[in-house]
Design goal:
GO terms for molecular function: zinc ion binding. By secondary structure, the chain is of the alpha+beta class. It contains 5 helices and 8 strands. Helix 3 runs antiparallel to helix 4, helix 3 crosses helix 5 and helix 4 packs antiparallel against helix 5. The longest helix is centred in the C-terminal third of the chain and has 29 residues. About 20% of the residues are buried.
Length: about 200
């Protein structure tokens, strides 16, 4: 029987509970607080050993590209290399080798393996707001650039943390306001010149 150790949420004293069932209850030995522990079945289940691949017994069978002594079980669906059960990695229903996964992650083929994203909505908002504070005469150029970036990257993958589009919308609204002011000032200047 496994013993699960954790800290009490009230007094922070260490508590040990046997995990005979998925849900256990007890009291803290330090403060007497009621404790309830719900565990996932994987916590009490023994870990299954990984597959090491079958040894190649006959010469006319195909062998793994990376392990010549192992029997190939599948071909990589990207490059076609034969892979043993140890090397075959299943990703989104495809069997791939580690080299293709690495290449695909670097080239951005696997969107779910990305570890960084450009936040175009923040760039557009930055271009819309910062010139208002620092250099107001540049707002005509930066407002146009802000609208271009926000519209061009409207469907680009957004941040995982901040998934909304409100920054892009705000950047477009601020930039359109700036361009409207420039248009109004240009109209006034044109009317003064024409008189």
């Amino acid at each position: 029987m496994k013993i699960f150790q954790f800290d009490c949420g009230k007094c922070r004293k260490p508590v040990s509970l046997p995990l005979a069932e998925p849900a256990q209850t007890g009291n803290c030995p330090g403060c007497g607080a009621y404790l309830e522990v719900a565990s996932f079945p994987a916590l009490v289940r023994k870990a299954a050993p990984g597959l090491s691949g079958e040894k190649l017994l006959v010469d006319d069978e195909s062998s793994c590209f990376y392990h010549s002594a192992k029997k190939a079980t599948v071909a990589c669906e990207s490059c076609g290399r034969f892979l043993c059960s140890l090397c075959a990695i299943e990703l989104k229903g495809q069997h791939l080798c580690s080299t293709c996964i690495e290449r695909g992650a670097v080239k951005g083929k696997f969107e779910h393996l990305q570890n960084e994203r450009v936040r175009y909505d923040d760039i557009a908002l930055f271009l819309a707001v910062l010139p208002l504070v620092l250099f107001i005469w540049g707002t005509f150029i930066t407002a146009t650039a802000s609208i271009f970036i926000a519209v061009k990257h409207w469907k680009s993958p957004r941040s995982i943390v901040y998934p909304g589009r409100w920054r892009s919308v705000l950047a477009i609204v601020i930039s359109l306001g700036q361009l409207a002011v420039w248009g109004y000032l240009g109209g006034l200047l044109f009317m003064n010149i024409m008189q």
